[in-house]
Design a protein that fits this description.
The chain has two domains: 115 residues, Rossmann fold, CATH 3.40.50.2300; 95 residues, Winged helix-like DNA-binding domain superfamily/Winged helix DNA-binding domain (Arc Repressor Mutant, subunit A, Orthogonal Bundle). Helix content is 37%, strand content 22%. It contains eight helices and eleven strands. Bound molecules: calcium ion.
């Protein structure tokens, strides 16, 4: 999932980002409430991890303004130790969940995955989108009842697309993400692998998921947008 971490304790924020990245997410960090509002107002994040006490604008106000803008990103609030029960209760109106500091990192990761259940299975190694399931460990996908074997690179490419349904990836970005450490990359290779994935997962009888966006790249259509 694409996650925005809003936390002014710099070390904690970096620690959160590492833990979420390790679990397969794509986190970004900001340290200020106003900056968070600017960053999240277009609704492009699946989830916000949002601290309450922040410079610029406090987390409750950020949440209120996002909801006033009809931003549907899920929100996990981080509340300070000793926060009064009233205040915590107030949070649940617009937040999807909250966690009191201090917390165990694996608890936070579990809560994040629970909130993102539509995209990431609890193991974090299985991705789902509509009737498409990808098991990263077994390198196989399922389209409904049909099992599909994937090569290592096909699996990696599909994983990148499935983690952020609806996002448009340029050929260069896909090339860098999937063939990152090789001495040269060729964006035509991306087209070849997209073609193979299409044959495997988008057979005629199915609703096609992989879309070509003219001049821009590729995206995986979310068949059931929130
Ligand atoms: Ca804080």
């Amino acid at each position: 999932m694409r996650i925005l971490i809003v936390e002014d304790e710099v070390n904690l924020a970096a620690h959160l980002a590492r833990a979420l990245e390790h679990d397969g997410h794509d986190p970004r960090v900001v340290h200020d409430g106003k900056v968070a509002l600017m960053e999240a107002r277009d609704g492009s994040y699946d989830l916000l991890v949002l601290d309450v006490e922040l410079p610029g604008m406090d987390g409750l106000e950020v949440l209120k303004q996002l909801r006033d803008l009809a931003v549907k990103s899920r929100v996990l609030m981080l509340t300070a130790r000793g926060e009064t029960p009233d205040k915590v209760a107030g949070l649940t109106g617009g937040a999807d969940d909250y966690l009191s500091k201090p917390f165990a990192m694996n608890e936070l990761v579990a809560r994040v995955n629970a909130l993102g259940g539509r995209f990431v299975a609890p193991t974090g190694r299985t991705l789902r989108l509509g009737d498409l399931t990808l098991s990263l460990d077994d390198r196989e996908a399922w389209r409904g009842e049909r099992r599909i074997e994937l090569s290592e690179r096909e699996c990696a490419l599909l994983g990148v697309l499935m983690r952020e349904p609806g996002r448009i990836f340029s050929r260069v970005e896909l090339s860098e993400r999937v063939w990152a450490r090789e001495h040269e990359y060729d964006t035509k290779l991306v087209d070849v692998f997209i073609g193979r994935l299409r044959k495997k997962i988008d057979e005629e009888k199915d609703k096609p998921l992989i879309e070509t966006v003219h001049h821009l790249g590729y995206t995986l259509r979310d068949p059931d947008p929130a």
